Amino acid sequence: xxxTQHGNLLPVPTGALQISxxxxxxxxxxxxxxxxxxxxxxxxSLVIPTYNESGNIERIIQQLSAMLDEVLPHNYELIVVDDxxxxxxxELAAALIPEYPCLRVMRRETERGLATAVIRGWxxxxxxxxxxxxxxxxxxxxxxLRLLSELEHGADLAVASRHVEGGGVSTWSATRRFLSRGAxxxxxxxxxxxxxxxxxxxxxxxxxxxxxxxxxxxxxxxYKILIEVLGRGAIDQIAEVGYVFQEREEGESKVTWKQYMDxxxxxxxxxxxxxxxxxxxxxxxxxxxxxxxxxxxxxxGLAVDMASLYILYDVLGMGLTRSAILAxxxxxxxxxxxxxxxxxxxxxxxxxxxxxxxxxxxxxNIICLMGLILKVLLLNLFFNGLQMNPxxxxxxxxxxxxxxxxxxxxxxxxxxxxxx
Length: 420
Ligand code: GDD
Ligand code: MN
Known about the structure:
The protein is α/β, with parallel strands linked by helices and 420 residues long. It has helices spanning 57-71, 89-95, 114-123, 143-152, 174-190, 192-195, 210-213, 225-232, 257-274, 276-283, 288-315, 320-343, 345-348, 354-385, 390-412; strands spanning 2-3, 12-13, 17-18, 44-50, 76-82, 103-107, 129-132, 157-161, 168-169, 206-209, 217-218, 238-242, 244-245.
């Protein structure tokens, strides 16, 4: 699905982060390639994610175009994906289009983040080879030629690495080196199968064959698009090319602590999704990662439910059934808030109008109240029928109802209809 935009900007894809197997044909996307270029097939699409790069954007476009016009005349495209930069990088880039026919520009106004920016750019790409380069000139453009040649020689993925021969960083502080190496070490501990495949898993400078990632539902968090490609793609042959990470001349790095937290979150998500449980869920089309998050939210709801039950039943002396119902409603509100923000946050973001949130809450509530009736029936069956301890009976009843709640909410409240 595409949302249309004004002027010569690209339409912004929405929905699942999935790359099509065949490059988008020209009629699907507004191509800025007037006349001669529109009949050429595009071999190579290079995405340049930008946020506040007004001081760099013209130079990076100029340098990349000069080099690629030499080696791939009319056979490449540059796709700037800007997240509505306050310094209006997208506008500066769009103004360059008449001068650079191979340049296309996307301005995202609702979604943000480096990794998803790259994927949205690849979704409108027309090339068989997809690439990403930083927009701040810290990735030397000429390394691209060696990356392209690696793909010509059969690699599925060609990564520009700071940690192989010919690689390095300019004057990085000891802290920055420590943090970068620390992140790599963490990756090796949490996701060894993926992170150990390359010497620079933090790199944001690489090319990948479209066929190696097409069809996969990508689901990155934050900055590190390379581990997402490694973790979910069908990557067989990997090549690495050494490069020296340059000093930034204009603007500043957007890396904050949040990116490091996102990185850990991303590693854990990939760990669950690419582990045995994730592969089992993939086969059964059961979203294990989501269910685990739903379960964690359920545990927080359990704590809220139990604490409320204790206060209402033991402290305030209310009847067991009435206390159980009230305690459950308090837990339902707790769970809706967490699920809407976290478990189904990516879907909720696409349905963020207030009316839709209220509709989702009502559906969630009705489904959970039906689950509550089921829970109270089970609680009384186990407590009165089987003489079970009331707390143990409550616990088992909650576990059974959790599966019910997850599956029905998945299909009705957040409408997870991932078309395979
Ligand atoms: N669209 C978009 N949205 N672009 C972004 C965002 C965002 O939220 N955040 C950063 N960018 C763009 C920047 O404008 C820049 O072009 C590029 O992504 C890298 O961002 P920096 O903030 O400059 O990152 P860095 O210099 O610390 O580089 C580190 O991260 C890069 C991205 O993974 C290093 O690890 C690099 O190797 C890596 O390429
Ligand atoms: Mn940078």
